[in-house]
Amino acid sequence: MKERVKSLMLVALVVCSLIQSYFLIYRLPGNERVVRTESDYVQTEIMGAQAKVEEVIFPQDIIVHLGDSKHTLFYPNTNFYKLILSRLQGRQFDGFQRYTATNLNWNTIREQNEGIELRFGRGVPVGVLQKVMQISNDSIFEDESINRILIYNVKNEDKVRVFFFSSQAGVIYEATNADLTVQDVHQQINFGKAWTPYRLVNGMYYIPEKNIDALDLVVQTGTYTSDQMQRSLSFDPSITRYIQERNGSEIYTDIKRSLQFRQHQNWISYTDPSRRAGSISLNKDALSAVDFVNQYGGWNGTYRMEVTEESDQQSRVLFQQYYDWLPILDLPGFRYGTMRLDMRQGAPTSYERSLIYTKDEKSEKRIRVLPGGEVLNRQIADKAKGQEVSALYPAYQPIYSEKGLRLKPVWVILLGSGERIVL
Length: 423
Description:
Helix content: 10-25%
Structural class: alpha+beta
Number of strands: 26
Radius of gyration: 26 Å
Low-confidence stretches: 21-43
Distance between the termini: 89 Å
């Protein structure tokens, strides 16, 4: 009799345990329902195109220094930009020496000498830059990130100097054995002599002396669904839970990871905080970020990579989207134009991107004039209100409506404080 009672009690305990487990897993407070699909397995969905690392590494612009305080700028996907870049990619750079940047007056060098300057935004790791340029392996700066390369003919001398600027302020590297002659540089300088003249202002930014033309257009769009993103990011439908937030955002989580949809912005934020901290490898993080986007979501258009070292043993990889030759702005009121990944030990801890993608169809197209010269100078002074201006660049301001995505060319000024102002 006692044995039967013990058996019944054991069975009852097991049943109670199973019931409690069910409610803990599937009925936590605040969770409305368990997300399930007809499939019992994780189905990965590839939505965008695949890209090679080489396709996302290119300068944000190329400055041609003509000497005598004359300059011009070439932007991505323009003929002279591609011609100059292709020629430099065929040259060898080695024999690196490290210097302190303050030893030379860079503004004087840019104003007085003929030269070419490639700017890479926040920076690109050397190991990744070697994918598109013939830079020799050198332990002196193999772990560096480069944000610009300056090549110039020394005035009144038969000599070419080549400097790689580190993203760390005040650190530069000279390639003492560059495969370039004075005549090589001079030939490329000639491309800029008949182009729009620019002048250097306060040693900080370049302003065109004339108006420049850009295309103002409307492109047709589509939108990825939440189901597509879940499948793309390999969320297991059998254990994924759904949470509705008060602000209208939706969160899907499989305990370790979460995927937040900001429906009013068509923007997603994916997080995986389980990655352990460790030493940073910018090269590894940059390459892994490209692989991650290839596998989870893909690419819609042309993107340019920038990599920065962040706090908490993380790096940040930003992919800036381009249409034609202009970058597309990512604005607080309308998130678009960038993909961002925070990386730790070669794996993402967060991933953000737009759900909107563009199609090849264009419904409207016209030429828009961006002002230059004194008109632009007055606009900058009016908006900056005495604050330091660190950069000026043309970009597309995205405007989303039922008609599609309007890409409106604008001038953007970047203040020393980091604030962006659209003119």
